[in-house]
């Protein structure tokens, strides 16, 4: 398995392919007009009160569930209680980076690593309050991200800068070379902790979704519907993610013309 940065039309998407190894070179930058197709999703993410409300809602639910679990002792008391969170678009806001591609209509030479090295990402609504609350309750906090291990120092610096508790080398678990998604790291935490809640903006932040097709992802969500809001908390990210890569079958060999066609084919429209 490889971690591949793909320059898809909606955004720069970091795809983690669980069962697919791709040997082709990453796709070249799309035509400038395709960057602009991400304008509305970034505008919504940055400006809509609804977007902020969804983050508050997610973290409020997390607080209620955490209280309930701890109060009723609904966990394995032989293990330490813990929560697991993704970082990007879950705790930290990378939308200014995404917006730079729309404004500049170009992706080179700036990339994810350049942005991460700046350690300038801000907190998302409700994140700090919830993290501080969990920390005060004696719950261990693990940040499991598919940022690369080489980006660990910059990632910790950013988290510490915004005041995220327990942001240290032991609690920030980034992707290792040739690792399949996040499951290995989640299982590592689960050896010594009972994971009470998981938070993320991508279904890959939860078990059972790696490498699924777009329909497979939806089918699995339907099967697991009782877990959302109970153990799994999902945040909105219309800007990028595996949701988009899945509609292309994670195929880097497709042309930009094919990608545009496939996107339109997946729209549920009506005849005028």
TrEMBL record:
<dbReference type="InterPro" id="IPR006423">
    <property type="entry name" value="Lipo_e_P4"/>
</dbReference>
<keyword id="KW-0732">Signal</keyword>
<dbReference type="Pfam" id="PF03767">
    <property type="entry name" value="Acid_phosphat_B"/>
</dbReference>
<feature type="signal peptide">
    <location>
        <begin position="1"/>
        <end position="24"/>
    </location>
</feature>
<dbReference type="InterPro" id="IPR036412">
    <property type="entry name" value="HAD-like_sf"/>
</dbReference>
<dbReference type="InterPro" id="IPR005519">
    <property type="entry name" value="Acid_phosphat_B-like"/>
</dbReference>
<keyword id="KW-0449">Lipoprotein</keyword>
<protein>
    <submittedName>
        <fullName>5'-nucleotidase, lipoprotein e(P4) family</fullName>
    </submittedName>
</protein>
<dbReference type="GO" id="GO:0009279">
    <property type="term" value="C:cell outer membrane"/>
</dbReference>
<dbReference type="InterPro" id="IPR023214">
    <property type="entry name" value="HAD_sf"/>
</dbReference>
């Amino acid at each position: 398995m490889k971690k591949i940065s793909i320059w898809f039309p909606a955004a720069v998407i970091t795809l983690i392919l669980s069962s697919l190894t791709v040997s082709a070179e990453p796709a070249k930058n799309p035509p400038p007009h395709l960057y602009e197709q991400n304008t509305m999703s970034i505008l919504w993410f940055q400006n809509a009160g609804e977007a902020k409300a969804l983050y508050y809602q997610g973290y409020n639910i997390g607080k209620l569930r955490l209280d309930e679990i701890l109060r009723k002792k609904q966990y394995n008391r032989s293990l330490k209680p813990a929560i697991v969170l993704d970082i990007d678009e879950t705790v930290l806001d990378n939308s200014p980076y995404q917006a730079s591609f729309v404004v500049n209509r170009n992706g080179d030479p700036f990339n994810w690593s350049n942005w991460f090295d700046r350690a300038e990402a801000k907190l998302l609504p409700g994140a700090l309050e919830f993290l501080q609350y969990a920390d005060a309750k004696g719950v261990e906090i693990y940040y499991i991200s598919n940022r690369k291990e080489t980006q660990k120092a910059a990632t910790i610096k950013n988290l510490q800068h915004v005041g995220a508790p327990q942001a240290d080398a032991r609690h920030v678990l980034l992707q290792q070379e040739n690792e399949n998604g996040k499951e290995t790291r989640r299982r590592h935490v689960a050896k010594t902790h009972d994971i009470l809640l998981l938070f993320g903006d991508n279904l890959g932040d939860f078990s059972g979704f790696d490498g699924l097709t777009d329909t497979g992802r939806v089918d699995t969500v339907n099967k697991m519907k009782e877990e959302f809001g109970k153990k799994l908390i999902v945040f909105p990210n219309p800007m990028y993610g595996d949701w988009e890569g899945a509609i292309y079958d994670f195929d880097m060999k497709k042309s930009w013309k094919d990608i545009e066609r496939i996107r339109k084919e997946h729209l549920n429209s009506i005849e005028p």
